[in-house]
Amino acid sequence: MEHQKSKEISEILTSESSPTMGRQGTTKGDELPNKSSPSMGNIGLLVEGYPVEGLSIGGQETCVIFPSLRIAFDIGRCPQRAISQEYLFISHGHLDHIGGLPMYVATRKLYQMKQPTIFVPASIKESVERLFDVHRALDQSELRHTLIGMNVGDEFQIRKDLKVKAFRTYHVIPSQGYIIYSVKQKLKQEYMTLSGHEIKSLRLSGVEVTYTVTSPEIAFTGDTMSDFVVDPNNADVLKARILIMESTFVDNAMSIEHAREYGHTHMSEIASYAEKFQNKAIVLIHFSARYTSEEIEAAIAKLPATLAGRVYALLQGF
Ligand SMILES: [Zn+2]
Ligand SMILES: [Zn+2]
């Protein structure tokens, strides 16, 4: 039975490039339907040395994957490449960001992968627990995972060399973004000239020979109004090596007011705040299904010169 299920799912997974996968429906607050069917190949970006995969279409599905860190931000409808990621960070409870959550946990179990660790805003943790309880009642499985609720400002050490911090975002329902920090131990200046042997004996005698350097590597906003940019507590978001932020609307056909009404960002606001972004790279996501990749690229080309050459777009599915 299990074998049969594996076969079915692996068939589904290997036929990922099927053009029959529809993209119906639109971003909340965006009335235009019928995005044409995308190609679902594993085309991703290479940003600051990190492969970036996944897809993000406003109102439909958002899942952004850093396979080299085994991390996914939001799960969308649970695309195939998300399943092998061990850590999942959920920004908020809208279905285009959380809909595939039970499938993610169930499919990892099917492939006998380690149970995943899932981070959610603390305010929705109980609801997510209930969601899993409903699925356990439905399929009599355990759906084992570790669920961690985080409040804005909370930090969590993921691995020895990585930690995460939740930051405030501004959406129409409770939401938050995440900053991934690299954590490195460096030898203190005064011990630089010592031999390895001398350093080791110092360490064994209880001397603290290293200090910790943390630096913001990746920040992910999820859905938010542009207000997060001017939140004084979000300085590290604007300093992260890579900022992944939403830009649901890109042209004058949709106003900033419209974007704000639905808790989203308009690309013209990113242009206005151009001077504030110290990031080496900015990956724009969550474009409305109303746009073509050509329209999105044309809008990016018009961004201020201070952003030139460091703005990427996740255009999978457009
Ligand atoms: Zn969304
Ligand atoms: Zn949303």
UniProtKB/TrEMBL annotation:
Polar residues bias (residue ranges): 12-27
Gene3D superfamilies for this protein: Ribonuclease Z/Hydroxyacylglutathione hydrolase-like
Domain spans labelled Metallo-beta-lactamase: 87-287
Region entry Disordered, spans: 1-38
Compositionally biased spans, kind Basic and acidic residues: 1-10
CDD domains (alphabetical): RNaseZ_MBL-fold (cd16272)
PANTHER family xref list: TRNASE Z TRZ1 (PTHR46504)
Protein name: Metallo-beta-lactamase domain-containing protein
Organism: Dendrobium nobile (Orchid)
Record lineage: Eukaryota, Viridiplantae, Streptophyta, Embryophyta, Tracheophyta
